[in-house]
Design a protein that fits this description.
With 267 residues, the chain is of the alpha/beta class. It contains eleven helices and eleven strands. α1 runs parallel beside α4 and α6 runs antiparallel to α7.
Length: 267
């Protein structure tokens, strides 16, 4: 007996192409939480059929909840996607090979979007999604808005030393979007000055031994609320929503605004 997936593949292959496949805007299912936010802004009405389930989870989403609720979501299985019969799927680099193969066998184009490590990479991703989805104008407008926000939040004074301390006690590297956001808004990365790279672990003891001027915590971690931090009395402490660090794209202006608020408070 054929599996449900094999039967669905057979039915998809035998059926005529859907009407939307002949349009200027291919219909899309996004399995990539970072692509979700971009596509929600640039897609034509009715073009984006579903987004990833991550964007419906406030703990994992970089999209405003009201925006995410406008779209259906999938768990990322081939069966769910094939049932929606999109022309295109936008995935991340971790898409299962079997899932990708099933989608491509059904005639669905699969576009892979990686992780943006800089402003330029993020703008390139926005413009690339505009090209493949037929929404160049909307994508260029979004790209311009992100670039304008970046310039508008450039800090012109002296930087202050700041530790961006993420869940798990991890820190960003210099060659990361989070590191670039710090630098753009007037901070000097405390962890980079210590020679720590992307995803390095920084324990509480080392923070106390050499405290920065500002600690910015993102996420939940026992060390972030440890009573010993009170001994670093000259260090200011601020919180940042982790969702502002998950993705680039339209998240960047919101992240810049929050970092700038913290920088103003640190004067």
């Amino acid at each position: 007996m054929k599996s449900a997936l094999a039967l669905l593949l057979a039915l998809t292959a035998c059926s005529a192409p859907p009407d939307h496949a002949r349009g200027a805007h291919p219909t899309i299912v996004s399995l990539n939480p970072c692509a979700d936010a971009i596509l929600a802004e640039i897609a034509a009405p009715g073009q984006l059929l579903a987004i990833s389930h991550y964007s419906h989870d406030p703990r994992a989403s970089s999209m405003p909840a009201n925006d995410a609720r406008r779209y259906a979501s999938t768990g990322g299985t081939a069966e769910e996607v094939l049932a929606l019969a999109p022309d295109m799927v936008v995935a991340d680099a971790f898409i299962q090979p079997a899932t990708r193969r099933a989608l491509e066998q059904a005639g669905i184009a699969v576009e892979v979007l990686g992780i943006a490590g800089s402003l330029d990479e993020s703008l390139t991703q926005v413009e690339a999604l505009g090209d493949v989805t037929g929404n160049e104008g909307r994508a260029n407008a979004l790209s311009d808005r992100i670039a304008d926000s970046w310039q508008a939040h450039r800090w012109k004074g002296e930087p202050v030393s700041a530790l961006l301390w993420q869940q798990g006690g991890l820190v960003p590297g210099e060659a990361s979007l989070a590191g670039a956001l710090l630098e753009q808004t007037g901070f000097a990365s405390h962890s980079a000055a210590r020679g720590l790279g992307q995803g390095a672990y920084l324990p509480l003891e080392e923070v106390l031994a050499d405290p920065p001027q500002v600690v910015i915590t993102a996420g939940e971690e026992d060390a972030f609320d440890h009573p010993a931090l009170a001994f670093a009395s000259a260090t200011q402490r601020h919180e940042l929503a982790s969702s502002l660090l998950y993705c680039g794209g339209p998240t960047i202006p919101r992240a810049l605004e929050r970092f700038t608020q913290i920088r103003r408070a640190a004067q």
